[in-house]
Amino acid sequence: MNWLNLPFSEWSPYLFILLAGGIPTQIWRTLGVFLSRSMDENSEVLKWVKAVATALVAGLIANLVIFPSGGLAVVPLWARVGALMISYVVFLKTRPRLLLAILAGEALLIGATLLYS
Amino acid sequence: MGKAASSSKQPRATLSWFLKGASNVVSLPALILIMSFIGFGALTAEAGLTVWQAMFLGITTWALPSAVLVAGAIINDVPFYATVFAVVLASVRLLPMTMALVPMLKSDKTKLSSLLLSAYFMAVTSWVFAMNRLPEIERENRVPFFLGFALTLAMVVVITLGIAHSLVPNLPVPIAAALIFLTPVYFLLSMTAAARITSEYWAIGFGLVLGPIFHLITPDTDLLWCGLLGGTMSYGLSRLVESRKGA
Questions:
Q1: pLDDT in tens, B60-85
Q2: Which of B148, B112, B110 is nearest to B129 (CA)?
Q3: What does the alpha-carbon distance between residue B174 and residue A83 come to, in Å, rounded to a whole number?
Q4: Which residues contact A106 (CB under 8 A, 6 or more apart)?
Q5: What share of chain A is helix, strand, coil (3-state, %, to 5)?
Q6: B180/A contact by beta carbon, under 8 A
Q7: Which of A18, A96, A114 sits opposite B193 (nearest CB)?
Q8: Which of chain A's ends, N or C, has fewer CB atoms near its CB within 10 Å?
């Protein structure tokens, strides 16, 4: 079972991508279809499932901003969180439009990056 | 006779709803996803993947967190089993998302294969799109409308990824940061826009706070616990408030 321990460089590239990336991702979508196919949209179970999905995506959002990767990691934490908050505040005034809110946050982020990194 | 007439009309109606969905790809959310994949294209170039391998990774996972994990595992020489483990954990979020999407998508006649295809091309952008747009569309048109959007988006994004892989290996820092920041800020705003009931607003708030806390406690399974705890608390709280109102 040595192949389990081998990294990408020792594998057939497409097989590695499919077995380590594609299939482990797709099992959840497949399972989701079979579990929910006979469920009613307005059932209480599904309201709970939707709340779980929403909290989970919100957690992903916060983690992308607070523990960032690549180029965003260079930007100071206060600028990342501040940019997200400014976007949110502008959005509450301009909803349901998104563009102005996103530009406001991006302006703070780019400005802070130019000044402080 | 009426039935024969309606079934001969149906393929054309399906195509027209597919095209309606596809035309929604010319939109802000799709543009944002495309731009975040430009950043990912640069990452796959850094990982040493060929352009075809990068596009294969993008389309077989069709979930940016999974694809980023695999690219990171390639850069850091992570063993196969550990990569599988990380990707399985990072993709659990797709289970409740699919379970919320499918009952909204299906009508009495929807085939299993259409639901599976829809699920494979569902990710956060198309999920938020579905939550926002499907309620206003008649049930029998929802699958073609959703697939039109999701399949076209996937095609455009994967082509962009291929181009970005070749053209932009080294972006200037402020631009790279701005591109990466687009994804969280767009997700947050559009999820708020899509929220319909109290428990969803609370779930957004709880998730934003619990995500980073669980990331510090248990980085491998953080989103799972964040979703279960935050979602259950917001569901429970909204039930409590409703029952108070009712009484």
A1: 999 887 888 888 788 778 889 888 98
A2: B148
A3: 14
A4: A83, B178, B181, B182, B185
A5: 80, 0, 20
A6: yes
A7: A96
A8: N
Angle, CA B162 vertex, CA B158 and CA B167 arms, to 5°? 140
Mind listing the pLDDT tens digit for each residue in B164-223? 888 766 678 888 888 878 878 887 987 888 787 888 899 999 999 999 999 999 876 777
Q: Does the beta carbon of B240 lie under 8 angstroms from any beta carbon of chain A?
A: no
SS3 of B157-216: the string is: HHHHHHHHHHHCCCCCHHHHHHHHHHHHHHHHHHHHHHCCCHHHHHHHHHHHHHHHHHHH
B177's tokens:
């940061």
Find out whether B2 and B126 touch, Cβ atoms under 8 Å.
no
Distance in Å, alpha carbon of A64 to nearest chain B alpha carbon: 6
Residue B1 has pLDDT above 70, yes or no: no
Mutant choice from B106, B109, B188 vs A, greatest count of A C-beta within 10 A: B188
Are B91 and A25 within 8 A, CB to CB? yes
- pTM of this structure: 0.76
Whether the Cβ atoms of residue B66 and residue B84 lie closer than 8 Å to each other? no
What does the alpha-carbon distance between residue B141 and residue B146 come to, in Å, rounded to a whole number?
9
Q: Per mean pLDDT, which range of A87-91, B31-35, B237-241 is the poorest? A: B31-35
pLDDT digits (tens, 9 = 90+) for A87-107: 999 999 998 788 899 999 999
Please state the length of chain A.
117
The residues near B1 (Cβ < 8 Å, ≥ 6 apart) are none
The sign of the dihedral angle between the CA atoms of A55, B179, B147, B138 is positive
Q: Which of B123, B235, B103 is nearest to A36 (CA)?
A: B103
| Interface membership of B130 toward A (CB under 8 Å) | no
Pair of tokens at residue B136:
């206003």
Q: Which of B28, B63, B208 sits opposite A58 (nearest CB)?
A: B208
- The closest CB to that of B207, out of A24, A57, A84, belongs to A57
Alpha-carbon distance of A88 to B217, in angstroms, equals 27
